[in-house]
Write a structure and sequence with these properties.
The complex is a heterotrimer of chains A (about 70), B (about 350) and C (about 240). Chain A is an alpha+beta fold and about 70 residues long. Chain A contains 2 helices and 4 strands. In chain B, α4 links the parallel β4 and β5. The chains are: A alpha+beta (about 70), B alpha/beta (about 350), C alpha/beta (about 240).
Chain lengths: ~70, ~350, ~240
């Protein structure tokens, strides 16, 4: 079981994690907005996550933590 | 202790080493090449580091890095090279770093001459680089004094966390005089917990060190500036120095520094022979300027006027006029470029003033 | 639950000011991780540049110095000569800092074989000042000071710093990497570590050139910018090891 924890307040909605995810399960939230006005990213389909941490490694704001 | 015949530049370098300087970064430029050359021999002997940088600009930035890492460090150059260093010196002042910078002045402006001048007074004392800052400026007048002031220079730099400049000239740098290198009476210890020596969050007794002059928040920059200004007021109170030479009962007061002050002393002797009493106020610190000493000397009842003599078009002159205020008229004998005043010329000017007043 | 990835303590908690999708944050993290993994935290001193990364001293939990524009290699030289071979001194510079105003200092640091590590962030533009042409701007690339596209006749071809510095004897390790794919990020991390190891082994000057992005001044989204690195930058700035002794 993989757990991807995104610190929404640090996210700048850059979308690099969305681009990097090999499973294509990352997306920018359509509904949430953080206090800076960005749509933070979220894991669209947690069951498909393999904890490869590609999202975390490309995140320029080190906003993602990955556990398995 | 036996005296040794030493060239000004070499004495400056040796005195720096005696004062604990172990790092020198510089670049060749006449007439101070003896300083880096001497350092290249001596520093390895004492386990220090000499590096000829790719330019004066690189050298001052190496000084910044070394000073930031806690070392006693020095650079030297001459007028055009000092101009190149100005950005770096402003950074050193803004980052509150200690260091010593030696300027062996030559003629300017521009490429100028390779002979002595006193044309860098404004640059040295009014900042030179950008922003509100000062370097403490010492103006030795003999090779012995250059040596004696060097210990001061490093101590003052460390005590106040400020750049210190030794303003010499090509004559002082190249002349040879018998000197004694006297060890410092008391070696001061400075604990530099602000230096970037390596930080372990678990073990370090001090906070993480950041050496920096960037203060993007206006309030923080104002705070830095207030801190610097406070320090400068303290330096003005405690570190201003001047030599008073034959000022008692003098009819005229000469004001000059460095090599020109020596020539003034000869002029004073010549005038003495003719029964004219003339004194000299010789600033030893150009910044802080010994305004009070000059004001008191020129304001004495016997004094009829002051004569400022310098190898420039009138830079020291402005500080003399500011210090003397309305006490007496300040006359001027200036030698811009590199022509050296003759003692007879100075004496002649006094006699002319005496006749005229 | 085992931790697969978490933030290294060698980065401070200060929120980074970089634009969304900027490569600086990634590279800061790689450097910080490498310092931690090599146990160099209390040996490391970083020199911050003038450029977007001017506040780099806020983000690394190590002693740092802020250098004047272009002079970081000289400042690093001063630090390294004082602290000695046990220390790990690195500079972090952009393309204006390193390849323009600092062109003299970087050449001479390599020339002296200065045992420092240089991280050269090449994003083919001047970011902080609003998108002017850099020595590394590509031919035809439009910037605020090359509005018609960089013209070879007018301002020369882009400068390949890694190739140039690799010709210098004192350079012990130079590699060019990129951040546009997961695999490239892994390779970049490896290069960062290798550069530090080169320094600690006393071999000489080490540099990692990292092809990075400036989405804001390129006028692209972060994802598009990463794609542009692949389509336009890598062909001109090939990845790989340029020098290794």
């Amino acid at each position: 079981m993989a757990n991807v924890i995104i610190q929404e307040e640090l996210c700048k909605g850059c979308g690099l994690c969305v681009r990097a995810c090999p499973q294509r399960i990352m997306r920018l939230s359509k509904t949430k907005l953080n206090s800076k006005g960005y749509h933070p990213s979220e894991v669209g389909d947690p069951a498909k996550c393999t904890a490869c941490a590609s999202c975390a490694r490309t995140c320029p704001d080190v906003a993602i933590r990955v556990e398995r | 202790m036996a005296k040794k015949l030493m060239k000004g530049c070499e004495a400056i370098a040796e005195a720096a080493i005696q004062a604990g300087c172990r790092f020198f970064f510089g670049y060749p430029i006449t007439p101070q090449n003896d300083i880096p050359e001497y350092m290249s021999v001596r520093l390895p002997e004492v386990g220090g580091c000499f590096l000829q940088a790719e330019s004066e600009l690189a050298a001052i930035n190496m000084v910044y890095g070394a000073a930031g890492a806690g070392a006693r460090v020095m650079t030297s150059s001459s007028s055009p090279g000092i101009s190149l260093k100005m950005e770096g010196i402003s950074y050193i002042a803004g980052a509150e770093l200690p260091c010593v910078i030696v300027n062996v002045m030559r003629g300017g402006p521009g490429l100028g001459s390779i002979q002595a001048s006193q044309g860098d007074y404004f640059q040295a004392t009014k900042g030179g680089g950008h922003g509100d800052y000062h370097a403490v400026v010492y103006a030795p007048s003999s090779v012995q004094e250059s040596i004696d002031l060097m210990q001061n220079a490093f101590d003052v730099a460390d005590e106040y966390r400020t750049p210190v400049m030794i303003l010499a000239d090509g004559i002082l740098g190249q002349m040879m005089e018998p000197v004694e290198i006297r060890p410092a009476a008391q070696k001061k210890e400075f604990h530099k917990d602000w230096a970037t020596t390596g930080f372990d969050p678990q073990k370090s007794a001090r906070p993480r060190a950041v050496v920096n002059s960037l203060y993007i928040e206006i309030e923080e920059l104002e705070e830095l500036n207030n801190r610097l200004q406070q320090r400068y007021r303290e330096i003005e109170q405690k570190e201003a120095r001047a030599e008073l030479y034959h000022t008692e009962g003098a009819e005229f007061i000469l004001c000059a520094y460095g090599t020109v002050a020596r020539i003034c002393k000869t002029a004073i002797a010549l005038l003495e022979q003719q029964g004219v009493k003339v004194g000299l106020v010789r600033p030893v610190t150009l910044w802080p300027f010994p305004s009070q000493a000059l004001f008191d000397a020129v304001g004495a009842p016997s004094v009829r006027g002051a004569l400022c003599v310098e190898m420039s078009a009138g830079q020291l002159l402005e500080d003399v006029r500011l210090a003397v205020k309305n006490e007496r008229e300040v006359f001027f004998l200036g030698y811009p470029g590199s022509r050296v005043p003759a003692a007879e010329e100075i004496a002649g000017k006094i006699l002319q003033l005496k006749g005229g007043c | 639950m085992a931790v697969v990835f978490e933030k290294t303590p060698v980065l401070t908690d200060t929120v980074m000011h970089y634009c969304p999708g900027c490569g600086h944050g990634i590279v800061h993290r790689l450097i910080a991780e490498a310092i931690g993994e090599l146990g160099l935290e209390d040996k490391a001193v970083g020199i911050a540049p003038v450029g977007c990364a001017v506040f780099a001293y806020r983000y690394f939990n190590i002693d740092m110095q802020e250098a004047a524009h272009g002079r970081a290699p000289a400042v690093a030289t001063g630090v390294k000569r004082v602290l000695g071979p046990e220390s790990c001194v690195f500079t972090y510079q952009g393309d204006g800092d390193l390849a323009s105003i600092g062109a003299g200092e970087i050449v001479h640091a390599a020339h002296r074989g200065e045992k420092i590590t240089v991280f050269f962030l090449n994003n083919a533009i001047y970011g902080m000042t609003g998108g002017q042409m850099a020595p590394t701007t590509l031919l035809g690339q439009k910037t605020t000071t090359s509005p018609y596209g960089r013209d070879k006749e007018h301002s020369g071809s882009p400068l390949r710093m890694s190739e140039m510095l690799a010709t210098i004897d004192g350079a012990a390790y130079i590699e060019r990497v990129a951040l546009n794919t997961n695999a490239n990020i892994v390779r970049a991390k490896r290069a960062v570590k290798k550069a530090f190891e080169t320094q600690m082994a006393g071999k000489g000057f080490s540099m990692v050139e990292i092809l990075s992005t400036c989405p804001t001044n390129w006028g692209m989204s972060p994802a598009e910018a990463m794609d542009w690195v692949e389509s336009d930058m890598i062909p001109y700035y090939p990845l790989g090891v340029l020098k290794e002794v």
